[in-house]
Amino acid sequence: MKFPGQRNQKHYFPVEARDPETLEPQIQPKRTHICGIAQTLVDIEARVDDELITRHNLVKGNSVLINDDAANALYRELKERELIVEEHAGGTIGNTLHNFATLSNERAVLFAVMERQIEIGSYAYKYLSNTSSKVDVSYLQPVDGPIGRCFTLITPCGERSFAISKGAMDKLEPSAIRPDLVREAGALVFASYLMRSADGDNIDQAALVAMAEAKANKVPVVLTLGTRFLIEQDPQFWRDFIAEHVTVLAMNEEEAEALTGHRDPIKACEAALEWCDLVLCTVGPEGLYTAGYSDRLQLRETEYELRNGSVPAFNRYEFSRPMRREDCAEPVKIYSHIAPYLGGPLAILNTNGAGDGALAALLHDMAANRYHKLNVPGSSKHAYDALCYSSFSQICKYANRVSYEVLIQHSPRLSRALPEREDSLEEAYWER
Length: 432
Known about the structure:
The strands form three sheets. A nine-stranded mixed β-sheet has the order 7-5-1-11-12-13-14-15-16, with helices on both faces. Strands 3-10-9-2-4 form a five-stranded mixed β-sheet. It has helices spanning 50-55, 68-80, 92-104, 123-129, 179-183, 203-216, 228-231, 235-245, 253-260, 265-272, 354-375, 392-407, 425-431, and strands spanning 33-37, 41-47, 63-66, 84-90, 107-111, 113-115, 135-136, 141-143, 148-154, 160-165, 188-191, 221-224, 248-252, 278-282, 288-295, 331-338. By secondary structure, it is α/β, with parallel strands linked by helices. The chain has one domain (31-40, 91-147, 168-431): UDP-N-acetylmuramoyl-L-alanine:D-glutamate ligase. Helices cover 31% and strands 19% of the residues. Strand 11, helix 6 (203-216) and strand 12 form a beta-alpha-beta unit.
């Protein structure tokens, strides 16, 4: 497994090399993976005028569900007028699993549906051909009908409007979930959209089956909120749901406000920690935050400048590693923040998927922790139970860097792993 960031040589684990004393090959390393439950979608990005938005009965700046006939009519007009900029595999969890696999070079198991008959050039073909070979699609459930389509319509003012044709993407059955794969995973990840499926669609029940298996085996359950419009319809439902099922919560500042009622990201993260153990909150041009718990005995003070916000000196212990609150004898809330990498790109080609990229980086770090524990169980890093391999601060840096890579390309899916990053002050701290 590739580890996030540049590490000192002693942090690598050459378990496939020959033992210097016996000159005998050591055993192969134990592998790890993550699991994701996804709605299979193809993203279609187009630049349009306001008149087209109105004529197709869409709502500017909002997400609207449309039926297959409306989707076909919209797609036909976009093609005829040559308004389409990009067509690529999408979906929040599909993007996240692909990016995780690209970053880590490890397996990501996809639980989702796929068209039974796939033709070259079809939406299903485009989805599979633009998904990393490290994403395991062996367990896709075949369905009769199209996968979903998500139209991202960008007007001259820069506003993005979304039209989503569900197709058969929510037809996943609980029987498609493989409990053995879930219980051995480094994490189980899914999006909020799954829990609001229509009558007759069972993807929400499939998600609940997977969550129950994960919880029974202490596999971290990771939820990404998806859109504020869904959360603000019933924020109390989501608070209760997170408290019952979720270990790690990923959201942006709008979703955070809808969930918690706090516009300030630190206050929103602080509130969310009453329901979960670790929070990743992206805040657009302000960068991103991580927040969570660590035991008082395991706290590590930052060597960066202390920063004040709604929580004074909120980053004081950002060199600490995230833990579950239940695993802490004396839990302490920890926060870290980072501004956009290099101040942000010179030109943003795509904002879709930047948050998914950040989440993929966090999942990589969580899986790296499990991989290391499987292969080097006697390491001092595992003297206590941590959720992640790295600290709050280091996770911020890594997630921030991945988000930058997504912003400078049209596709929400990475086409390559990141280059090595520079050494950091924090890594020097851990070398002492």
